[in-house]
Amino acid sequence: MNHFEIRDGVMHAEGVSLEAIAAEIGTPAYVYSAATLRRHARVLREALDGHAETTDALIAFAVKANSNLSVLKVLAGEGLGADTVSEGEIRRALAAGIAPEKIVFSGVGKTDTELAFAIRTGVLEINVESAAELDRLIAVAAGLGARPDIVFRVNPRVGSGAHAKITTGAPADKFGAPVEEVMALYARAAASNHVRPVGLACHIGSQITELSPLKAAFAVLRRMTLDLRAQGFEVHRLDFGGGLGVPYFDRPGEADPVDYAAVAAEAARGLDVQLAFEPGRMIAANAGVLLTRVIHVNERPDGMRFLVLDSAMNDLMRPALYDAFHDIRPVRPREGAAGPYDVVGPVCETGDTFAKDRVLPPLEAGDLAAFMTAGAYGATMANEYNSRPLVPEVLVDGDRWAVVRARPSYDEMLAREAVAGWLIP
Ligand SMILES: Cc1ncc(COP(=O)(O)O)c(C=O)c1O
Ligand SMILES: N[C@@H](CCCC[NH3+])C(=O)O
């Protein structure tokens, strides 16, 4: 079921008209559907419940995809944990009521301060990505008299994802340690009194629409588990990462969570391990839209036709960064023939182009439109370039809605800065 649909001629998020939201808080604004978030969490949980190996798996939502406290709270209510990559994300997960035992701490460059924070918090596991990090973690844990559980993130040499900038498992990617290195690091960690190696992790990329690369990566972890056990090491946790793709409506084919669960279950068969998954996009992407208004249509004598929106690359960076496709739909569709537009924002960059030659239904100055599939890596990647105030976020839940991140006023934006004392006469 789609929770963003046209009713009485206007697009609604669940029971709330997007026109009503725009009238009250202005545009641009992200709007999330709590029902869609819950549905996606349940779809994955039910798929995992289909196999003995995956039934008790931890679903740790990748906070980087959408870190809004209300979104995390909705997902915490569904029993999800959190995959985090910074102290800030751990703090967000905790603030949303996610228990430390459901928090995974990943990332290629965790600082000593962040590692100490994670240890003191008592997170489920720290995913170690390199020899350099292992050494620092051992020193930090020794200083605290602690012995955290760690999992090694393997770079399985299987890269996948919709764009070169979002693969993470190819040999030259900065993520994870090569298989042979992990085998050596595992022994080094097991010999330390300050970390306890308990398993392996991988995450090979994002917006993955075919299961074969995931299957290959999971098979690497399976083989390593058997090899490590044969050497007498304990391996009881496997973290299969995230990466599952979603429909962006430009091309067919997202991976089916039921098939995904089957692939994961097969890889873990007979291993008697505790599994974790770190989905981000799959949970949040289609649970959000970016609501925007047409500033004007610039029809030039040279034939170019620009649809100039009040949202820009600073609000939704994916098209500029990855040439990503986002479906653009009128909030109140008009009668008339569709036609091509170059869809742009007001930021002073040629790259501030959402789509070129996109055939869209008629749109006029003042009309509202929605970027679909914007609930993941939208608001979290937004910034204030061109001194455009940070885009606000709204959560809809049935007939209720609330602003869950307010648009800063210009005064608030300026108040974060200061003029150095010596510059004031
Ligand atoms: C370690 C890790 N886990 C999980 C994710 C979430 O990925 P996705 O949103 O594609 O599911 C990411 C981001 O790609 C990641 O780097
Ligand atoms: N931010 C990216 C995906 C990277 C995921 C994080 N490793 C996107 O919007 O598609």
TrEMBL record:
Binding site for pyridoxal 5'-phosphate: 243, 278-281, 377
A GO molecular-function annotation: pyridoxal phosphate binding
Modified residues (N6-(pyridoxal phosphate)lysine): 64
Catalyzed reaction equations: meso-2,6-diaminopimelate + H(+) = L-lysine + CO2
Cofactor(s) needed: pyridoxal 5'-phosphate
Pathway(s) served: Amino-acid biosynthesis; L-lysine biosynthesis via DAP pathway; L-lysine from DL-2,6-diaminopimelate: step 1/1
Entry annotation: catalytic residues: 348 (proton donor)
Pfam families: Orn_Arg_deC_N, Orn_DAP_Arg_deC
EC number(s) given by UniProt: 4.1.1.20
Keyword entries, A-Z: Amino-acid biosynthesis, Decarboxylase, Lyase, Lysine biosynthesis, Pyridoxal phosphate
Residues holding substrate: 281, 318, 322, 349, 377
GO aspect biological process, one term: lysine biosynthetic process via diaminopimelate
InterPro entries recorded: Ala_racemase/Decarboxylase_C, DAP_deCOOHase_LysA, De-COase2_C, De-COase2_N, De-COase2_pyr-phos_BS, Orn/DAP/Arg_de-COase, PLP-binding_barrel
NCBIfam families: lysA
Subunit structure: Homodimer.
Similarity annotation: Belongs to the Orn/Lys/Arg decarboxylase class-II family. LysA subfamily.
Record function comment: Specifically catalyzes the decarboxylation of meso-diaminopimelate (meso-DAP) to L-lysine.
HAMAP family xrefs: LysA
Protein name: Diaminopimelate decarboxylase
Species assigned in the record: Brevundimonas abyssalis TAR-001
